[in-house]
Design a protein that fits this description.
Elements (H helix, E strand, L loop, with lengths): L18 H14 L8 H5 L5 H12 L10 H14 L3 H6 L6 H27 L6 H11 L10 E5 L20 H12 L5 E2 L28 E2 L4 E2 L13 E2 L3 E5 L6 H5 L4 E4 L2 E4 L4 H16 L6 H28 L17
Parallel strand pairs: 2-3
Antiparallel strand pairs: 1-6, 3-4, 5-6, 7-8
Helix pairs in contact: 6-11, 7-11
This protein binds a DNA duplex (21 and 21 nucleotides) through helix 3 and helix 6.
Keywords: DNA-binding, Nucleus, Repeat, Transcription, Transcription regulation
Pfam families: Myb_DNA-binding (PF00249)
GO biological process, one term: regulation of DNA-templated transcription
DNA sequence: AACATCTTCAACCGCGATTTC
DNA sequence: AGAAATCGCGGTTGAAGATGT
């Protein structure tokens, strides 16, 4: 036995709403509110509609200050970043975009943003076709050829100074494991803090405090923050005196960004040297052992997550590989662009923790 | 102009969570 | 405590419009 239907399907109108129905519903709610009972509402105002349908119509269309279409680049970035970090939690994503509804964002993602992203990836792949090296090996080789400080491949995105990154410059992450109500509310609490805490993308020196955004245990402190960096389009960090603090800094020629971490990674990262530079923390290592450890942490951390649903995991695989290729691509770009005689990586201060 | 195919998005559906009785 | 009612969410559908042939 399934659950009882919420309304009498036979006597309920379906399909597009007429202007008259809209007017009735709008007028009633504006005057009386919803009364806390959507199921009873259509009967009160003489609408032959299901209560759920009324609710949806109000929330997605009639409610004041709703925006439709015309998504800005910044909104694109936010949606994209949040999707990669938290998955298809459209209501949470919508909460970060005033005037947008979860339905709108979901539609926008499914019909445009996703394609835009996949199109980027395809171009990337074509550009790299013919290259026989495995991605990881390629990174390592490049690293081996570099005598300078090695950007911590694990979770650190690299991009050239003054080069506008195409989005998403995002962490290679797995979906958050939100299995319990507590986790969910914790995640929500964190996300709520997102609003208004975006970094100013124009700042050359900007702090991105990063930790694993999905490790709820790291987010217990009241001082924890979530940040979105509109410049790098990377996001979602937790920062508190009790959490591990990692930040980004902009070195001459190259900007290193710590952009989040895979589950269980943050604690591992805490073992790696971070140097405070003004108000920034710079993560670095030129120790191959440490580098391998970072890579191992990163790879294992980002592949051991227990996906909560099969359908979600497949889309996450897509997105993860996408982000991964972006990272590789950025790294390659960086390696090609940085002059060989550049001393920026070799600056003594970046070698302090051998 | 006519038809086929693709894209968009409003609306529906089912299900888990929460609240009420 | 447990069943029923309701809410809220995310996935899916299908009509309508846009675009291609």
């Amino acid at each position: 036995m399934g659950r009882a239907p919420c309304c009498d399907k036979a006597n309920v109108k379906k399909g597009p709403w007429s202007p008259e129905e809209d007017a009735k519903l709008k007028a009633y709610i504006e005057q009386h509110g919803t009364g806390g009972n959507w199921i009873a509402l259509p009967h009160k105002i003489g609408l032959k509609r299901c209560g759920k349908s009324c609710r949806l119509r109000w929330l997605n269309y009639l409610r004041p200050n709703i925006k439709h279409g015309g998504f800005s680049e910044e909104e694109d970035n936010i949606i994209c970043s949040l999707y990669i970090s938290i998955g298809s939690r459209w209501s949470i994503i919508a909460a970060q975009l005033p005037g947008r509804t979860d339905n709108d964002i979901k539609n926008y993602w499914n019909t445009r943003l996703k394609k835009k992203l996949l199109g980027k990836q395809r171009k990337e792949q074509q550009a790299r076709r013919g290259n026989s090296c495995l991605k990881q090996e390629m990174i390592k080789r490049e690293i081996d050829q570099t005598t300078s400080v090695v950007p911590a491949v694990a979770g650190i995105d690299i991009m050239m100074n003054n080069q506008t990154p195409y989005w998403p410059e995002l962490p290679f992450v797995t979906p958050p494991l939100v299995s319990s109500q507590q986790d969910q509310s914790s995640l929500k609490d964190l996300l709520i803090k997102l609003g208004g805490r975006f970094c100013d993308g124009d700042h050359h020196q900007q702090s991105i405090t990063a930790a694993c955004p999905f490790d709820a245990s790291l987010a217990q402190s009241q001082d924890d923050q979530l940040l979105y960096d509109s410049n790098t389009m990377s996001l979602l960090s937790i920062a508190s005196p009790t959490s591990m603090n990692i930040s980004s800094t902009q070195l001459p020629n190259t900007q290193y960004n710590v952009i989040g971490a895979a589950p269980n990674m943050s604690q591992g990262l805490a073992n790696f040297p971070f140097e405070q530079l003004n108000d920034q923390y710079v993560a670095y290592t030129n120790n191959h052992q440490q580098l391998e450890e970072l890579e191992r942490l990163y790879v294992s951390g980002s592949t051991t997550g227990n996906s909560t649903s099969a359908d979600q995991s497949s889309s996450w695989e897509d997105m993860s590989s996408l982000v991964y290729s972006t990272m590789v691509s950025d790294y390659e770009t960086c390696q090609q662009s940085v002059p060989q005689d550049s001393t920026s990586f070799e600056d003594e201060r970046y070698f302090g923790h051998q």
